[in-house]
Amino acid sequence: MSTCRVPYVRPTIAILYVGGSIGMVANKRTGRIEPIESLGEIHRALPDVQREVKLEFHSIANVGSSEVTPEHWIELTNKIEQLYANVDGFVIIHGTNTMSYTAAALSFALQNLSKPVVLTGALIPINDIASDGRMNLVFAIRAAQLDIAEVCIVLGSRVLRGNRAKKVEQSFLQTFDSPLFPPLAEFNLDVYLHPWRTVRRKRRPNFRSTFDTNVTSITLHPGMPITYLESILDSYPHGIVIRAYGLGMLPEELFPWLRRAKEEGIAIVVTSQMTRGRIDLHHFRKQLTLEKLGVISGKNMTYEAAVTKLMWVLGQTHNHRRVRELMERNLVGELDD
Question: pTM of this prediction?
Answer without folding.
Answer: 0.93
